Amino acid sequence: MAPKPPDSVEGLRVAGNQSFRNGQYSEASALYSRALRMLRARGSSDPEEESVLFSNRAACHLKDGNCTDCIKDCTSSLALVPFGIKPLLRRATAYETLEKYPLAYVDYMTVLQIDCTVTSALEGINRMTRALKDSLGPEWRLKLPPIPSVPVSAQKRWDLENHKENAKTKSKETTSTKNKVPSGNIERAKVLKEEGNELVKKGNHKKAIEKYSESLSFSNLESATYTNRALCHLVLKQYKEAVRDCTDALKLDGKNVKAFYRRAQAYKALKDYKSSLADISSLLQIEPRNGPAQKLQQEVNQSLK
Question: Minimal CA–CA distance to 240: which of 64, 59, 22, 27?
Answer without folding.
Answer: 64
